[in-house]
Amino acid sequence: MGRVDLEKRRAATERLRQLADAGHLTSRHVRLTAAGRGISEHTVWRWIGPHAPPTDGRSRPGYRLTDTDRAAFVFYQGNVGCTPCPRRAVIKGTPAPSGTDLPEEFVQGWR
To answer: What is the reported pTM?
Structure first.
């Protein structure tokens, strides 16, 4: 299975999304599209799914580290695995998962 030309992909996904919006999309449509492009049906379903990557040639925007994220990495001595849980806890407004108090700088920065 190879890569599909961006224009062909855009045309296929646009039509399949139109069918889906109208409530007429069937597995047969996806099967025919996949066969015509030489790709798997799973790939076509992924193209038209709710988290489908953009078809305009740009990649998805990545997460940009904030100054607070960088300070937390230093605080946790470079252990990137320690940072997401407290960050998520602050964003959700729940206590830190470890039960320890976070520096106020992190709480303010992540809010």
So the answer is: 0.46
Tens-place pLDDT, residues 4-22? 788 888 888 888 988 888 8
Distances (CA, A) of 19 to 16, 23, 28, 29: 5, 6, 12, 9
pLDDT at 86: 83
39 located within any domain: yes
Q: Structural domain of residue 93, as residue ranges?
A: 67-110
Answer yes or no: do 43 and 71 share one domain: no
DSSP codes joined into one string, 57-91: SPPPPPPPPPHHHHHHHHHTTT-GGGSHHHHHHHH
